[in-house]
Design goal:
The longest helix is centred in the middle third of the chain and has 19 residues. It is built from ten helices and 18 strands. Helix 3 links the parallel strand 13 and strand 14. By secondary structure, it is an alpha/beta fold. The chain is globular, with a radius of gyration of 24 Å. The chain starts with a helix and ends with a helix.
Length: 428
């Protein structure tokens, strides 16, 4: 017993003693009176706003609040709350999301809270129109890309390998000779055939680690970058690209179907599946694709265009329903036509339909299973677009909204997503 106590004391003395900063003492909450945050069109939603310090209501606190349809809130006021609480109401006459944003000013600092109540979200429909040659355009693009040999490279990364998983940096040709897609491939060590998971990235420029955990569960994983540069360089290289040559890349060549930045990105996703099929021990039966934000859009694009995909999981998918803003309704990131209502952008509007997640979702068939998740409070990917995209899919699908999340994950959401993918990929 004394030896055990000594060992415990030794371990404790070796641990860092500095405390971590986690959260704020000041918390602003906006709570609807329906626990699921869902209402019928015409119903009145009641909201309770509270500003608390260490769990106790703050007296005489000044707040700014805005209410109304998300991205188009038409009521904005500043009030002082005597007892730290405020009651508000709202309703909608058509399907959509009614958002309440609150900023409290306490001791010279600002603290935010928000809530977006859904009104008949199952009836939301997108505004974007699928071009008559949408499917033909993308089929031809894929056929042209496949005229270029993959010419794959593969480099072991011993420092990332585990006893169960081998990790490699790989690359292969994209849509033409010299254009390459780079990624991190994780393969179970034990010989055999395995299901495969393609992981597609959110917006930005960064290195990648690879999905070792999922691979350790008996799944081939390939996490790809989209910018045609290696994914194992120092962070500073990506920072320079993000602030320089690739700054605002999502707006590059918006007026050209063929030269649009996301053309080679989407082709990279399809070629990644070609790589998995040809150069990994894939079982040829189960293949998934997943990503969040920009990765959610790429998930829809890959599943829509590639029927090797049997399951897909888009999380708060961006780049959906670009043209919604033309009718005064919340549109998906990057909100292309929100600021100027699309004036002088007729060509860009036309081209945007070929790069809208909704139109790719329309191609998903009954043999592909989907899991959708997003947050009602997300002010980057509005839930209006997330719900309408989900409603577009006619095949088997599940929806799991996490109402209080913004453009991030809750741990429970992450766990649910991971478990769903593993379950689907293990199906016989």
């Amino acid at each position: 017993m004394k030896r055990l106590a000594f060992l415990l004391l030794t371990v404790l003395t070796m641990l860092p003693i500095e405390a971590q900063i986690r959260g704020n003492s000041i918390v602003v909450t906006v709570e609807p009176d329906h626990k699921d945050w869902n209402y019928r069109v015409g119903e009145i939603a009641k909201f309770t706003v509270e500003v608390r310090r260490s769990g106790t209501l703050v007296n005489d606190v000044t707040i700014d609040y805005a209410t109304g349809p998300e991205m188009y809130q038409d009521t904005k006021k500043t009030v002082t709350l005597k007892d730290g609480t405020l009651k508000l109401t709202g309703k909608m006459s058509s399907p959509g999301f009614y958002r309440v944003d609150v900023t409290a000013h306490v001791d010279g600092k600002d603290y935010r809270g928000a809530c977006a109540a859904a009104f008949s979200p199952e009836k939301l429909q997108p505004s974007t129109v699928m071009p008559s040659d949408f499917k033909e355009f993308w089929q031809q693009s894929i056929a042209e890309a496949r005229k270029t040999d993959l010419d794959p490279t593969k480099r072991l990364l011993p420092e990332r390998c585990t006893k169960d998983v081998n990790v490699y940096e790989v690359s292969f040709h994209n849509e033409q000779w010299g254009s390459r897609t780079y990624g991190i491939l994780c393969v179970p060590v034990r010989e055999g055939k395995y299901p495969a998971l393609l992981r597609v990235p959110g917006a930005g420029v960064r290195p990648y680690e690879g999905d070792v955990y999922t691979a350790s569960q008996g799944v081939i994983t390939l996490e790809i970058g989209i910018h045609g540069v290696p994914v194992t360089m120092q962070q500073g290289v990506y920072d320079n690209l993000n602030n320089g040559a690739l700054r605002g890349y999502w707006e590059f060549n918006m007026d050209s179907r063929e030269k649009h930045y996301y053309h080679h990105v989407i082709m990279g996703c399809i070629r990644a599946m070609d790589y998995i099929e040809q150069y990994t021990p894939w079982d040829g039966k189960n293949a998934g694709v997943t990503g969040s934000s920009q990765g959610g859009f790429l998930t829809l694009a890959t599943a829509g265009l590639d029927k090797r995909i049997t399951c897909y999981a888009p999380v708060h998918a961006a780049l959906c329903d670009h043209t919604n803003s033309l009718r005064g309704i919340a549109c998906g990131w990057p909100h292309f036509f929100y600021w100027n209502k699309g004036k002088g952008q007729e060509k860009q509007i036309e081209v945007s339909r070929y790069y809208d997640g909704v139109n790719f979702a329309r191609l998903i068939n009954d043999q592909q299973r989907g899991w959708f998740s997003f947050g009602y409070c997300d002010d980057v990917v509005p839930p209006t677009t997330a719900w309408s995209t989900y409603n577009t899919v006619t095949g088997p699908k599940e929806i799991s909204p996490y109402q209080a999340t913004w453009h991030f994950w809750h741990q429970e959401q992450w766990d649910e997503w991971e478990n769903w993918l593993l379950k689907e990929l293990s199906k016989q």
